[in-house]
Specification:
Elements (H helix, E strand, L loop, with lengths): L1 H17 L3 H10 L5 H26 L13 H22 L3 H11 L6 H14 L2 H12 L5 E4 L15 E5 L4 E5 L7 E2 L10 E10 L2 E11 L12 E5 L12 E5 L2 E4 L9 E2 L5 E2 L9 H31 L5 H10 L17 H9 L1
Parallel strand pairs: 1-5, 2-5
Antiparallel strand pairs: 2-3, 3-9, 4-8, 5-6, 7-8, 10-11
Helix pairs in contact: 3-5, 4-5, 6-7, 6-8, 8-10
């Protein structure tokens, strides 16, 4: 009623006289910049390059399959199913608009969500290309690129991860049948955490210790089918599944994998570098650590990806710091005049003058 409003009015005016709008604070900070963010963006990417990036962002915004609306209200299963739609949606953008490979990768980075297909393209296919023979590449890579098979990279185990020489999954050569026997002899030999393994992948590059006549030749990569292509059921001797809920990567089906005396042909070993001949003769690779190449590549990409996450974190932190007051308004004004206190950057431009996308470009590329 009117009396209630009149009683409240003095208190409201007192608060309003000290308050400021966050958008106004950010606008003021941008006006203080001594360097134009737009000019810097043009310098970094060129006029045409910057315009093209903005066009690609608009394409992404228009595709409802790539919208994040309601994402954090979805269940784990809903996020997984949604994640399966992202790469097909981007592929459709590439085909419809004639995007280059670099432009397609840019769109995927802008969507910025991990999916069950990520290891297929980031680790599975690169390993086939980098460690397979010409014949193996011709047989498997095109199927992988056309999604006739979906793969993952199974290295990490319950007992060992980056310590490759400690892996416990074994591949024992049977020269009579010219086959390898894949086996998980211990609990800690269980492959654990590969993305896309839990539900999605039909195949995997499996890192296993090679044994010939009882001699340990160390870890080597093997191309292994895990599930029946007709019904997606695990093949005999293979136990595979999802490890369950996690703190992050909600849409990714990280999985576990065990082998019980599973036989694969000799030609399933990726033999671009090291080889096992029909009679069991082992041919050493020209570089002893060649099998580490995939993990070296991925670790470099992780560092690059971390810069993108850092750019977003910095954007959020700086913008929040501009309007979260830590002193009275008068005290804050004196701090401004003295050039101290508050959230101020001792650089030639305040980061709040950048959009989150511009900071992303600045740190990531």
């Amino acid at each position: 009623d009117d009396r209630t409003r009149q009683l409240q009015l003095p208190a409201s005016k007192a608060i309003q006289s000290l308050a400021s709008e966050p958008q106004a604070d950010l606008a003021q900070e941008r006006q203080r910049a001594t360097l134009s963010a737009e000019s810097l963006a043009r310098r970094l990417y060129g006029e045409e390059g910057l315009q093209r990036r903005r066009e690609l962002v608009e394409l992404i915004k228009k595709d409802k399959r790539l919208s994040k609306t309601g994402l954090y209200s979805m269940t784990r299963e809903e996020q997984y199913v949604r994640g399966l739609q992202i790469l097909p949606a981007i592929r459709e953008l590439i085909l419809t608009h004639g995007l280059s490979r670099d432009e397609g990768e840019f769109c995927y980075r802008m969507v910025d969500e991990s999916t069950a297909f990520e290891l297929h393209y980031v680790m599975f296919v690169p390993t086939l290309l980098g460690q397979g023979t010409t014949e193996q590449v011709d047989e498997w890579v095109m199927k992988a690129m056309q999604s006739e098979i979906i793969g993952t990279y199974a290295q990490t185990e319950l007992g060992h991860g980056t310590y490759l020489r400690g892996l416990e999954t074994t591949a024992t050569y049977d020269r009579v049948k010219q086959e390898f026997i894949l086996h998980s002899p211990t609990l800690t030999a269980t492959k654990w955490w590969p993305g896309g393994l839990g539900k999605t992948s039909t195949h995997a590059v499996v890192m296993a210790r090679l044994f010939i006549d009882g001699k340990d030749y160390g870890p080597h990569p093997f191309f292994v089918q895990l599930r029946d292509l007709s019904n997606h059921h695990p093949l005999p001797g293979i136990t595979v599944g999802d490890i369950g809920p996690k703190l992050g990567f909600i849409a990714v089906d990280n999985g576990f994998l065990r082998f019980d005396h599973v036989r694969i042909p000799r030609t399933a070993m990726l033999m671009k570098n090291s080889q096992v001949l029909e009679d069991g003769t082992y041919v050493e690779p020209p570089v002893q650590k060649a099998s580490y190449a995939t993990m070296v590549l991925v670790r470099a990409e992780i560092v690059a990806g971390a810069s993108a996450s850092l750019a977003k974190a910095v954007t959020i932190a700086v913008r929040c710091g501009q309007h979260r007051k830590r002193s009275q308004k008068s005290g804050r004004s004196r701090a401004k005049k003295k050039g101290v206190g508050g959230t101020r950057w001792p650089v030639f431009f305040p980061p709040s003058s950048f959009s989150s996308q511009q900071l992303f470009f600045f740190f990531f590329f």
